[in-house]
């Protein structure tokens, strides 16, 4: 099951709790989906501090559905710190999801071609005929029999 998040102090808990152990707020825990939607709304908050914290939390959660809203925030934002944090968030989310999609596609490819490596030649073929023409058969015999 997913994590639960306190909307008051941003505390993360593995289980649902009625009272937050960090700040003591009651009934402030949300599921991951609800918390991500709350953070997406906080991206457009009038206070700079809330926008930065929301972007950092979305970056940490790797929430893919937030990318269009973050891009909109980059477009309309005038504060350079918030804009930089939004770019970091998009980069982190994009890298994470591209990496996981690539790993899944590689795993699918490996599953279909599991024995393909058995048919690849891994050693170099020595052209024996050319060597025999140049040197003869004597160098191929053991040393005691020459």
Tell me about this structure.
- The chain has 5 helices and 3 strands.
- It has a domain at about 45-110.
- It is elongated, with a radius of gyration of 30 Å.
- The protein has helices spanning about 30-40, 50-60, 65-75, 80-110, 130-135; strands spanning about 5, 10-15, 30.
- Helix content is about 50%, strand content about 5%.
- By secondary structure, the protein is mainly α.
- The longest helix has about 35 residues, at about 80-110.
- A 3-stranded antiparallel sheet has the order 2-1-3.
Set out the fold topology.
Layout: E1 4-6, E2 12-13, E3 29-30, H1 32-42, H2 48-61, H3 67-76, H4 80-112, H5 128-135
Antiparallel strand pairs: 1-2, 1-3
Task: Give a concise summary.
The protein contains five helices and three strands, in the order βββααααα. 52% of the residues lie in helices and 5% in strands.
């Amino acid at each position: 099951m997913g994590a639960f998040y306190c909307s008051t102090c941003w505390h993360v808990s593995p289980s649902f709790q009625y009272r937050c152990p960090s700040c003591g707020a009651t009934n402030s825990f949300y599921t991951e989906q609800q918390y991500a939607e709350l953070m997406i709304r906080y991206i457009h908050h009038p206070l700079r501090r809330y926008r930065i914290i929301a972007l950092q939390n979305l970056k940490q959660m790797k929430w893919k559905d937030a990318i269009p809203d973050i891009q909109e925030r980059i477009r309309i934002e005038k504060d350079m710190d918030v804009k930089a944090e939004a770019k970091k968030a998009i980069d982190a989310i994009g890298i994470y999801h591209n990496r996981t999609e690539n790993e899944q596609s590689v795993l699918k490819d490996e599953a279909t071609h599991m024995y393909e490596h058995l048919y690849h030649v891994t050693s170099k073929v020595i052209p024996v005929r050319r060597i025999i023409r140049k040197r003869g058969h004597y160098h191929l015999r053991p040393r005691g029999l020459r």
